[in-house]
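Anti-sigma factor NepR domain-containing protein
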Amino acid sequence: MDNSLDDKLATDPKLDSGSQKRIGDQLRAMYDELMQQPVPDRFRELLDQLDKKNGTKEGSQ
């Protein structure tokens, strides 16, 4: 009997709606907190370089 229960749990994982809601709420809170943080200067410089390259390519086509 234990094997059939293990097989069912391995093939049919499900979370109840309350657990899904809690996980979703926590993920949203973490994402919102992350989005509040400033972009590091080095990342901003790299993004600016990419924008310049993309602008040059699009302008020359």
